[in-house]
UniProtKB/TrEMBL annotation:
<feature type="domain" description="Endoribonuclease YicC-like C-terminal">
    <location>
        <begin position="183"/>
        <end position="297"/>
    </location>
</feature>
<dbReference type="InterPro" id="IPR013527">
    <property type="entry name" value="YicC-like_N"/>
</dbReference>
<protein>
    <recommendedName>
        <fullName>YicC family protein</fullName>
    </recommendedName>
</protein>
<dbReference type="GO" id="GO:0004521">
    <property type="term" value="F:RNA endonuclease activity"/>
</dbReference>
<keyword id="KW-0378">Hydrolase</keyword>
<dbReference type="InterPro" id="IPR005229">
    <property type="entry name" value="YicC/YloC-like"/>
</dbReference>
<comment type="similarity">
    <text>Belongs to the YicC/YloC family.</text>
</comment>
<keyword id="KW-0540">Nuclease</keyword>
<dbReference type="InterPro" id="IPR013551">
    <property type="entry name" value="YicC-like_C"/>
</dbReference>
<dbReference type="Pfam" id="PF08340">
    <property type="entry name" value="YicC-like_C"/>
</dbReference>
<keyword id="KW-0255">Endonuclease</keyword>
<dbReference type="GO" id="GO:0016787">
    <property type="term" value="F:hydrolase activity"/>
</dbReference>
<feature type="domain" description="Endoribonuclease YicC-like N-terminal">
    <location>
        <begin position="6"/>
        <end position="159"/>
    </location>
</feature>
<dbReference type="Pfam" id="PF03755">
    <property type="entry name" value="YicC-like_N"/>
</dbReference>
């Protein structure tokens, strides 16, 4: 059974809850040479990054993935504590300035309002509550990840249809090159005769045996049978990959390079304007194929 194709770009979002704690997760991905994940987690959840990486990598094998996690706990479970070091430093500064300046000392309310004097600290959870919260977080990430995977597969389906069209065009152009009359020995001989006519008008002669020898030599050099066979083989291989599905981006990229190499050789061997035009069209379509391949996982 074939697997769905997937683009490397997508987005997923999910929210969850554990008791009074609200959880929000967003996951997005863009093109990448391999798999890479960057996480921006709420304070205190950094130890979960390794586990989240494993969860993401189990469903995504290629692409640059960003995970955003925001966890908001109930304020009833939040403690307000005094930063003793900051408070001591401020009080010491007040005493120093009081000896040097005349003025009223600040009130307790004003001191406590200074940045850094008061800290908020979430009350410690029991081991069971902490395990439940961590599970709710990983479940939320998994749901967001499912949304990301689904969006990547939708885009992958669109890309797959475009790739199939490009392969049809490559095959049609390859058949045109294969059936082009300009690659026959007779056509080469006819072009040589035309050139001989021009040479004769210039006073140069060439016997018939030499003419056939030149025709055979040029026909051998211009033989594109091998390139045509390889183009057909690469198209069949690419279609087989599309049919199988899954993370085939790298393999298709290699095949697109091979297709381009054969098209280049065909153009270099061509001794006919029409055949060269077909080769150039081939190169253009292969470039379009490769541009789309770059987006596949």
């Amino acid at each position: 059974m074939s697997k769905p194709l997937a683009s490397m770009t997508g987005f997923g979002r999910a929210s969850g809850q554990a008791g009074e704690t609200q959880i929000l997760c967003e996951v997005k991905s863009v093109n990448g040479r391999g798999f890479d994940m960057r996480a921006r987690l709420s304070p205190g959840f950094e130890p979960l990054e390794s586990q989240l990486r494993q969860i993401v990598n189990s469903k995504i094998t290629r692409g640059s993935v960003s995970v955003y996690l925001n966890v908001q706990r109930d304020m009833a479970n939040t403690e307000i504590v005094v930063n003793e070091r900051a408070l001591d430093a401020i009080l010491s500064m007040i005493d120093t300035l009081s000896d040097r300046l005349d003025g009223k000392k600040p009130s307790i309310e004003n001191i406590l309002a200074l940045k850094g004097v008061l800290d908020t600290r979430e009350s410690a959870l029991s081991p069971d509550a902490e395990a439940a919260l961590n599970k709710a977080v990983t479940d939320c990430v998994s749901v967001a990840l499912d949304g990301l995977v689904a969006s990547r597969e939708i885009e992958g389906q669109r890309i797959g249809a475009l790739l199939a069209q490009r392969l049809d065009e490559i095959e049609a152009l390859t058949e045109q090159a294969e059936n082009h009359p300009g690659r026959s020995r007779e056509a080469i001989l006819a072009r040589l005769r035309e050139q001989l006519t021009l040479l004769a008008e210039a006073g140069t002669t060439l016997n018939e045996d030499r003419l056939h020898q030149e025709a055979m030599l040029l026909a051998t050099k211009a033989d594109i049978r091998e390139e045509i066979d390889r183009l057909h083989a690469h198209v069949r291989a690419a279609r087989a990959l599309l049919a199988a599905g899954g993370p085939i981006g790298r393999k298709l990229d290699f095949l697109s390079q091979e297709l381009n190499r054969e098209a280049n050789t065909l153009c270099s061997k061509s001794n006919d304007v029409g055949l060269t035009a077909i080769g150039l069209d081939l190169k253009a379509v292969i470039d379009q194929l490769r541009e789309q391949v770059q987006n596949l996982e």
